[in-house]
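help with this record:
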Amino acid sequence: MLAVIDHRLPLSCRARLSALGFTPLPLPPFPRLSEPVASHPDMLLLRVGDTLFCHRDYYAIAKNEIDQILHVSGLSLCLTEDHTGETYPEDIALNFVFTGNCLLGKTEFLARKVKEYAETHRISLLSVNQGYAKCSTVVLGGAIITADTGIEAAAKGAGLDTLLVASGGVTLPPYPYGFLGGASGVCGKTVFFCGNLKGHADGKAIEAFCQKHGYAVVSLSDEPLFDAGTLLFFNKNG
């Protein structure tokens, strides 16, 4: 099982993933993105159904890593070509939540080939104001956790059980804060947090909500929660 990570994920978290039987796969940075998030998986890769999307120019940089993901997962690869830059919204073409049969995010900036895939496969697009939708969301099957009220409203409208939590409590230097979705990753029925969930103001409520939906919670270290751009997990079964 691959755990795809930002290459700057704290060593304590990386070591814990290895101890739990995962093979950490750090992603190299994409120079077109802002340096603090240039190797964040949720900025670089988007899985929708049986297809993995990434930018054509990033694939040229991370071919070895992405080919490992494809080999392990059996997913097909689709390369996007949209203009990508350091500043918002030029960096959000793949920062979307896929759950159920919906893609949620700032859909006017969704990568063109993802839009085409969604149309072909009759996947609904849910537009929200939050451009960093994937960073902002923990997805538990048919339920989500977020600190963003726009995402909360859209998710509830789509019939998803939703927990709205306090913003903050997540670091992402040099920015003033990070996002809870970016500080976590879901594999099977377990939610892994980059750092200690107990340090979050709504840590107990988050754990209870996860348990309500049948998910266990694992804190990967005793450090404050750290936005590492979402942990992405890949194997033949998902």
The chain is about 25% helix and 25% strand. The mean pLDDT is 96. The first strand starts at residue 2 and ends at 6.
